[in-house]
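pinging the channel bc i need a second pair of eyes. not urgent but kinda urgent?? the chain im working w is below, pasted from the shared doc
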Amino acid sequence: MFRGRFEHTIDPKGRLSIPSRFRETLVNVYEEERLIVTNFDTSLWAYPLKEWKVVEEKVAALPQFKSEVKTLQRFFISAACECPVDKQGRILIPPTLRDYAGLSKDVVLVGMTRRIEIWSKERWKKVFSDAERDIDKMGDDLASLGL
């Protein structure tokens, strides 16, 4: 499982260092060193291939003629890119994905159990601040989920 938050920088070529704790999870849990990266929610979502296959299977099982399903496929699935981890522990994020997420220098990688979110530091500050403000209001909803 991916957990924790890590601040890194992305270089002008789009190379981003993956935190060693996340790389250990990739190797020890998923037995691979690559991520499938796509766009969503003004950030990037990065999945180990094993987890990505589950997502693709679920999407493929949806009614293909529904407009919501087509929209999801066109936006989320079509943007997916395989990003192998190089010998220096970095992935190369394509320009289209960097542009979507506003990644230029300071980046935050966030462990989200089965995926990693990649945020521009500026956007992350706002999202985290909003979550911090709202978490207390969510107690009853979280309790109903068994948490």
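so Helices lie at 20-28, 49-60, 67-77, 95-101, 121-134, 139-144. and The chain has one domain: 5-121. — does that match what u expected or am i reading it wrong
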